[in-house]
Write a structure and sequence with these properties.
Length: 473
C-alpha cells in the first residue's frame, strides 16, 4: 500500500523538533514538523481517495469522525483517539477500507477486498489521479477489480455495479443491471488477466484541487503540546457518564453509536431501550450484534413488527453467506411467532366479545323470567295452547332462512342470514338486551361462523335493517 511518510519527518520527531504546522481540507487535517510539500501531497492523496471512491459508490463516503494525520507519529493504521481518527501517514488502502466500512452495507467479501487493494495503488500527480499500478502480491480479488476498472469494456459500468452491491441488491441482478455480463464470466476473464501479468493503470476523474492554495497554519507551543498529547491519547471513554452527559456526547458526535449503546443500558422503559438499540445499529450499519439486541428488545415489548424489521437489517448487515442464512432462519421464526401472537390476540378479543354478548343475553332472559314470575304469582297455569307474545318493538319485515354467521363488534351484533332465495342478507342487532330470542332454551347466539347452521325466522325493520326478534325453527 502507498504510504506518504518521509524519513526526514520521522527523524525530526524523534529529535524533538517542535515547529509544527497544519493543512486542512474537511474532514482531513495533516500536521507536520517537516517539509510543507510532503504535507500537501499527503492531504491531496486523502482528498482524492475520498472523492474518487465516493464517485464509484454513487454517494459521498464520509468518515464517522474527523481524520487527523500527524506525519511521522506512529504508523498508517487509523485508530480512534481523542476527538477522531489518528494515523502517522496516509495509506490509501487503509482510508478506502474505513470509508467503505462506515458508509455501505456488506457486499461480496472478495469484491470488497479487491476494491480496497486496487485503491491502495491510487496515485496523485498534480490534478491527475491514476489507479491500477501492480501490487506486491496480486491475487484474483485484485485482478478482478483491476480488469473492471482498466478494461474499456467495463470501466464505465463498474461504479453502477458497486453502487448496487453496496445497497444490498441481489448480486445476480446487480451484475446484470450494470456490467451486463455474469459474474462467473468476469471471474474467468480475471483469471486469464492475472496469468498474463500485464497490468496497465487507468485514469480516474479526480477532484479539482490545487494543493498550493491550502493555507498553512503554524502551531504555537501550547497547540503543539496539545497535538502531541492527542496523537498518543486513548479513544474517548464513556464509562460512568449520566444519561444527560451521554446525550451531550451523542449530539457532539452524531455518527458515534457508543453513546446510544450506553444509554440503552440505562433506559428503564422497554420501548425507549429498544429504540436506543435500533439507533445505535443504524449508525454502525454492519454491526449485526446491535441489530440483534434491538430485535430482542422489541420482542420483549411485544413489538413484533419492529423486531422483524431489525432482524431483516441484521440479515443485510451480515458479512458472510452462512451468517445471512442463519439470520434469515431466525427472522422467519420470529415472523411465525408474530403471526401466532396476532392470532391469539384476535381470538382473545373475539372471546371477550362473545362473553359480553352472552352476559347481555342472560341479563335479558333474567329480566323476562322475573317479569313472568311476577305476572303468574298466585295464578293457576293456563290450559290449552300457549300463544306467543312480545311487548317490545316489532319489525315490519321478516326473513326466513339459515343463520350462517354472527360478527360481534363491541356490544353490536351483525347477523348474516341466507334466505330461502339463496341470497345473503346482513342484519344488525344494536341493543342485545332488547333482542327477543325464541326457540329451544339451549340455543344461544355465538360469535363467528355458526356450527351447526340453524333455520331461523328474523323480524327486522325494513328501513334500518335492525333485528327485533329471532325465532329458531
Amino acid at each position: 500500500m502507498r504510504l506518504i511518510a518521509v524519513a526526514a519527518l520521522l527523524a525530526g520527531v524523534l529529535a524533538g523538533a517542535d515547529k509544527w504546522s497544519v493543512l486542512r481540507s474537511e474532514p482531513f487535517a495533516v500536521y507536520t514538523n517537516g517539509k510543507e510539500q510532503d504535507a500537501r501531497e499527503a492531504l491531496a492523496l486523502a482528498v482524492q481517495v475520498q472523492h474518487t471512491l465516493s464517485a464509484q459508490f454513487g454517494k459521498e463516503l464520509t468518515p464517522a469522525w474527523p481524520i487527523t494525520y500527524v506525519l511521522g507519529k506512529g504508523d498508517a493504521r487509523l485508530r480512534l483517539g481523542p476527538g477522531g481518527y489518528l494515523a502517522g501517514a496516509v495509506d490509501a488502502g487503509e482510508l478506502a477500507a474505513l470509508l467503505i466500512r462506515e458508509n455501505t452495507l456488506p457486499f461480496d467479501e472478495e469484491i470488497e477486498r479487491g476494491v480496497i487493494a486496487l485503491f491502495s495503488t491510487l496515485a496523485v500527480d498534480g490534478p491527475r489521479v491514476r489507479i491500477g499500478a501492480p501490487v506486491a502480491r496480486p491475487d484474483l480479488a485484485w485482478a478482478r477489480m483491476h480488469l473492471l476498472f482498466t478494461d474499456d469494456r467495463y470501466s464505465g459500468k463498474t461504479r453502477v455495479l458497486l453502487a448496487n452491491l453496496s445497497k444490498g441488491l441481489d448480486p445476480v441482478v446487480a451484475w446484470g443491471n450494470s456490467v451486463g455480463v455474469k459474474e462467473t464470466v468476469i471471474t474467468e476473464q480475471a483469471k486469464e488477466h492475472l496469468a498474463r501479468g500485464s497490468f496497465a493503470d487507468a485514469a480516474l476523474n479526480g477532484k479539482a484541487i490545487d494543493p498550493r492554495r491550502w493555507r498553512q497554519e503554524v502551531l504555537n507551543a501550547q497547540e503543539t503540546a496539545e497535538l502531541m498529547a492527542r496523537s498518543s491519547g486513548p479513544a474517548p471513554a464513556l464509562g460512568g457518564l449520566t444519561m444527560a452527559q451521554l446525550e451531550e456526547q451523542a449530539q457532539k458526535w452524531p455518527r458515534w453509536p457508543e453513546p446510544h449503546v450506553r444509554m440503552a443500558a440505562l433506559e428503564t422503559e422497554p420501548a425507549r431501550r429498544a429504540q436506543r438499540w435500533r439507533h445505535a445499529a443504524q449508525l454502525a450499519l454492519r454491526d449485526v450484534a446491535l441489530w440483534q439486541k434491538a430485535a430482542a428488545a422489541f420482542a420483549a415489548g411485544e413489538l413484533f413488527a419492529e423486531q422483524t424489521q431489525c432482524l431483516l437489517a441484521a440479515e443485510k448487515a451480515a458479512s458472510t453467506r452462512v451468517e445471512r442464512e442463519r439470520l434469515r432462519t431466525e427472522r422467519l421464526a420470529a415472523q411465525d411467532r408474530r403471526v401466532e401472537a396476532e392470532l391469539a390476540a384476535k381470538r382473545a378479543e373475539e372471546e371477550k366479545d362473545r362473553a359480553e354478548v352472552e352476559r347481555l343475553r342472560q341479563e335479558a332472559l333474567n329480566r323476562i323470567r322475573m317479569a313472568e314470575a311476577k305476572a303468574n304469582d298466585g295464578k293457576t297455569p293456563v290450559a290449552g295452547k300457549v300463544q306467543e307474545w312480545w311487548e317490545g318493538p316489532r319489525g315490519d319485515a321478516s326473513l326466513r332462512g339459515r343463520l350462517e354467521r354472527v360478527d360481534c363488534v363491541g356490544g353490536t351484533l351483525r347477523l348474516q342470514v341466507r334466505g330461502e332465495d339463496k341470497k345473503l342478507t346482513a342484519l344488525v342487532v344494536r341493543n342485545v338486551a332488547q333482542l327477543q330470542l325464541d326457540g329451544a332454551p339451549e340455543i344461544q347466539l355465538s360469535c363467528g361462523i355458526q356450527r351447526p347452521v340453524r333455520a331461523v325466522t328474523v323480524e327486522y325493520g325494513r328501513k334500518t335493517l335492525e333485528v327485533t326478534r329471532v325465532k329458531f325453527d
